[in-house]
Amino acid sequence: AQSVTQPDIHITVSEGASLELRCNYSYGATPYLFWYVQSPGQGLQLLLKYFSGDTLVQGIKGFEAEFKRSQSSFNLRKPSVHWSDAAEYFCADRTDSWGKLQFGAGTQVVVTP
Amino acid sequence: EAGVTQFPSHSVIEKGQTVTLRCDPISGHDNLYWYRRVMGKEIKFLLHFVKESKQDESGMPNNRFLAERTGGTYSTLKVQPAELEDSGVYFCASSHGENTEAFFGQGTRLTVV
Fold first, then answer.
1. How is chain A split into domains, by residue range?
2. What is the pLDDT of residues B53-94, one digit of tens each?
3. B56 in reach of chain A (CB within 8 A)
4. Which of A26, A39, A87, B38 has the most CB atoms around it within 10 Å of its CB?
5. Does domain B5-112 have CATH number 1.10.10.10?
């Protein structure tokens, strides 16, 4: 069965430090991958997506992600985090042509001063 | 342009009562999805409408859940009777067509006591 794994449930990072969130997917065909963020009291906001083409994808809020087929990974990165990046981050894979998503368990990011 | 709107934002009901959640998708979006996240678990797909038709309801947990989308506009998700395990955050999302991103609402937090 198709699955999306986010190995890190919780990450603490200092403001200004770099951040990398891991995501692994399992599916034979070309994946359609997404990263969403949920800030406190907010809904899910799309940070970026990968359908095809350039494997390094730029998103909003200074985030980027790199698709690596050989590693079945789609890790999210940000060079320098801001306190406002404290949120929960979800990796997702589209499971059918209609757009149904399968989510990872989420990674909670805490930003310390 | 208004985003996906969900009502209410919070609901606390007693076990055995009925609750109806509402989702207003982005205007013109034919696809409407319901997802749910119970405490500590992943965000799980419930069902998908294309206009007023149920395309996929494979994620609906049981027959206490009834979703409708009259006229292909807004959708309701009724839980009757509610059980304790129904507590969680219910998300709605909409998208325009295939290979397009889904936009999520802020969710309805349902607490069954």
1. 3-112
2. 999 999 999 999 999 998 889 999 999 999 999 999 999 999
3. yes
4. A87
5. no
